Amino acid sequence: xxxxxxxxxxxxxYPNPSEAFAAAARSRVYTxxxxxTPRAWPQNLVFSKGAEHVHPALGLHPEVVAHRFNELSIWDxxxxxxxxxxxxxxxxxxxxxxxxxxxxxxxxxxxKRCASxxxxxxxxxxxxAVKAVLDSIATHLPAxxxxxxxxxxxxxxxxxxxxxDLGCFFSVNAEMLKSERGRTLVSALPMNRVLTETDxxxxxxxxxxxxxxxxxxxxxxxxKLRGVDCALMGxxxxxxxxxxxx
Length: 246
Fold this sequence. Notes:
alpha/beta; TIM Barrel; eight-stranded parallel beta sheet; two-stranded antiparallel sheet; 10 helices; globular
């Protein structure tokens, strides 16, 4: 039985990926290890083989779409093998804005494929593009055809309500809880739709890349923020994951 949840981590991007996968497997943390390019999918399958709580996701990160759009055909080839899809989505930050139209094409394609097959679970990036992401989900992926977890959500409280109405979940990391705005947003999320994540190795703990086991501190922070016992918060998160996977 898993003890906690890291629903967004890039294990293949750690300095020593094989050891990162092995450590995650030992940690008893249910870990979703996302990929930024479908070319990484085969090796992620190899690394996660036999690791009960480590699950690879098939991705095409919006930051790389500008020069990897043609990898959608590779993504399509691997799609039937994957229950989890990620990291996918849209990014309208300054460094990615010029590729936004291309990103939308890729994201629409991915959502349509997921809707067609049904039963997929997606980890979705929405930096500075929450409205566009939610519009695309509303149009192309009915809640009955797939489930979306919004990774490191930075939208408004009203956008979080719209996302919840669309059936979305939210994965929360420690960085989100460092600012007053972030704590206000996380406080407003429906508690039955919240999961934890690290986004390691892109976040750090004491000068090292965050590991899946570091979500235990996030669980503690969430419990304090919501005014509940830490054990109860951990149970709630595990129940939320079970609901997502059902």
